Records
---
Amino acid sequence: MFNRLSRRHFARIAGWSALGLSTISAESAQADSRRSLPSGFPRNFLWGTATSAYQIEGAVNEDGRGPSIWDRFAHTDGKIGDHSTADVANDHYHRYKEDVQLIKALGAKAYRFSIAWPRVFPEGTGSPNPKGLDFYDRLLDELLANGIEPFATLYHWDLPQALQDRFGGWMSRDTSKAFADYAGYVAAHLSDRVKKIFTINECHRLVYSGYGAGIDAPGLSLPPQELNQVMHHVALGHGLAAQAVRAHGRTGTRVGPAENLVVCIPAIETPANIRATEIATRELNAGYLTVILEGKYTDGFLAYAGKNAPKYTAEDLKVISSPIDFVGLNIYLPHHYVVAADNKSGFSLLPFPSTFPHMESDWLKIGPEAMYWAPRQVAKLWNVKSIYITENGASASDQPAADGNIYDLDRIMYLRNYLTQLQRATSEGVPVRGYFLWSLMDNFEWTDGFEKRFGLYRVDFKTQRRTPKLSASFYREVIERNKVV
Ligand code: BG6
């Protein structure tokens, strides 16, 4: 839907050159004054790293874990670029103590990991598997003993295969309900030690890549109405889970989503473009953050979806917009540069030139301003008081130099620029409380297998040896000085 919407708007940008030059220069001057940054991040700013269960744990058949849709998908011929699976991955299930030391060595005080639903409920529902939860018990104890605050994500895409087989996964609201039961169970058992819980990682990607484009598990390409229905069930799952965490978590347990919102940036920082960008952000995130934070689908979305709109009740919308304590944002790239337009929507999305730079992954365009505008818009549009950057990071070639070290200067360049923009945001009072770098270590990067590396630590997947890259030293320095270095 969004791609088609984007294309529609690309067609309407012809008038962009009508933007007044005088307006631009006056605004540039204002923007310049905003750019004189104080030197550091707020006191108590939380620095962390992030991983997810399926990407690092391995041990897929151990201690009663059930199969997930990603096990099935990775074992299907032709789905993973390098024909690998995550059966072993980083063997984190057995090496978690060593990995906690890697976090500690960075000086990071927080760690975002995910809990594998099929470890806890191998069949998705029904009887819990106590050994599955035991692993997270051990991990939490280890983190806390090392002074690292745990942040748990309940769903980072590893749906129990049984739910796919029984209900078609998120095609059914039965999966949303099962998710809530699992969420409540985890909150009841682990919230004595984990106080911050994210419901779903990246609703947007799991729906469109998993059920629309068919490139992620479960590999489906549904027609528009069914796809919008999946989107609705995922948002509903988030809301039901948020309620369950509140109902079953101990006092002080906090909950929110971790979303890869569609990031819109004013092409030039004029008041008109900034306003147009806010409108675009609200519309282009209609199915997730907007409905979660407003309790309704936008008129623009409903008009565009027409007969393909999801079927829902007023009660659903109430559930989806259940109170949350913070918003997590995964920010990697600029999705759109926006200008104001004299059209029905009020904005136009500019086409990207073919020379626009990207990191090793083709999709990972380099647009550091994303890290300023996205949290600023979320705070402003929806009056959000607490934001975490739940993921940000980059793939790089990471070839060892002659001396064996990894001088990942391109990753450092990327991080330095994004963090500079984050600092711009916090210095203006945008309420970003912490930042989780993706990723602690190289891992199974979904359909790229082990071909793409995002880690601060290089992992040799034959020996499981972890070696810090230069970016690990960079990040340690940032953390220690609480400023961009
Ligand atoms: C984020 C995911 O979208 O992007 C991570 O939350 C993922 O799990 C990261 O590893 C990089 O994406 P990819 O597709 O290159 O593995």
---
Amino acid sequence: MEIKVAPSMLSADFRYLADQVRAVEDAGADFIHLDVMDGHFVPNITFGPMVVNAIRQVTDLPLDVHLMITDPDRYLKAFSSAGANFITVHAEACTHLHRTITRIKELGVQPGVALNPATPLDNIKYVLSDLNLVLLMTVNPGFARQEFIRGVIPKIRKLRELISEVGFECFVEVDGGINPETARLVGQAGADVLVAGSAVFGAPNLAEAIHSIRYNAKRAQLV
Ligand code: DX5
Ligand code: ZN
């Protein structure tokens, strides 16, 4: 299975956002991960569709928009118009999850659903085949630089099994505390899109950081 690395711009230097996007693109990023936070669903506040659209203009890489916001339905159109390729909503933030997923598809965007560490896979069981991506949080959402929660590993493994059983294409993305070490654990469990913020932007060499995350996850798959 091909492994993709999605640097999270949350850990970039926002004074030079365009340059930082180009830098991770040149360093081998597969997706650009954009963390949208509203100060309600999570304690932190980041940015909205305007910034997503600004980033859209400096890269052709897929924009992987992670909405950590209450009532995401209100903003799906705005993020789609801003140029999102994937829109991922939190199951915990959606009362009518199937409707939200359908709406994302109608907008011509690939739908994803994110689950907090404590949320069971059962919450998405009956919508799984409608999704292009499932994002399993490996930290509690809200901030970069938190410690990877190992308890999520069996959930990654189980999700990969479910997807193989049903036999459809769907990314298994992990987000939070991913670095070249934890990349082995999630790669072995079956994740194929690895989000990394601080481990990429905090590294002395962006290309080396992206390469070692991808390489370690890939190598662990074979074990
Ligand atoms: C956390 C965000 C993550 C975060 C990851 O709520 O969803 O994408 O930026 O940062 P690191 O890789 O530093 O844990
Ligand atoms: Zn994220």
